[in-house]
């Protein structure tokens, strides 16, 4: 089913975005930003 594949890829892509966002905030690339330890943020991006 092609629709299922698209949903699966989008699911993996959302996890990749969450990982990327966590890495950026973790290493403080942007000055003055704190790492986001709020689980609500990652839960919002999770499907």
Structure characterization notes:
This protein is an all-alpha fold. It has helices at residues 2-26, 39-45. It starts with a helix and ends with a helix. The model has no long low-confidence stretch (mean pLDDT 69).
Strand content: under 5%
- Assembly type of the shown chains? single chain
How is the biggest beta sheet arranged? none
Termini Cα gap: 19 Å
Looking at this protein, list some descriptive labels.
rod-shaped, 68% helix, mainly alpha, single chain, 47 residues
What's this model, at a glance?
With 47 residues, the chain is an all-alpha fold. It contains 2 helices and no strands.
Question: Which helices and strands appear, and what pairs or packs with what?
Answer:
Blueprint: H1 2-26, H2 39-45
